[in-house]
Amino acid sequence: EATRNTKYYRHNDESESIPVDLTLIDAGYQTDAVYGACYEAGAGVMPIMGFGKSAGCTQANFHEVQKSVVGKQPGDGWFLSKKGRVWLVCADADRWKQWEHNRWLTAEDQPGCMTIFGQRSENDRLSVDQKDHHSYSRHICNEKEVEKMIRGTVKRVWFQKSDNNHWLDASYYSDVAGSMR
After folding, report:
1. Which of 39, 106, 133, 169 has its CA 20 to 30 A from that of 71?
2. Which letter, b or e, does each residue of 68-98 get, where b requires 16 or more Cβ atoms within 10 Å of its Cβ?
3. What average pLDDT does the segment 154-169 reach?
4. CA 181 – CA 175 distance, rounded (Å)
């Protein structure tokens, strides 16, 4: 039996309801406000931040073999870090962006592919679905992995073409939530 706090996502055709038991909120902007909102919301609502070496971040350590210590709980490409009254989900941004891009590059008939739902137009104009997904696809493709010489060594880093990458972050954050569950 579901608890009174469990919310459900329903498909448009009402055929299936899926419990929503984890919501991750980007805490990269207005961090204290996000922490406060997550605390007030309670269980199942957590702040998240992505950390990656591509952006010069050396704060997070995402070694696969981690031990659980006071204030830090390990995960697979993510870990939980106690921040005051809430647990912050720290995500390996480089790893999850690559994982996300690999899903988009996987052929539709192969396991692990990602696609965008919707209907194609029957004429030469874009359908409503195609128009709605245009911005999303631009955000997803706004970053790409490139080879760059760093201190005499060739490294693969993520290059951001513009600041419009928020939906890429949100999309890989949902991948992290799936990994957590």
Report:
1. 169
2. eeeeebebebbbbeebeebbbbbbbbbbbbe
3. 84
4. 10
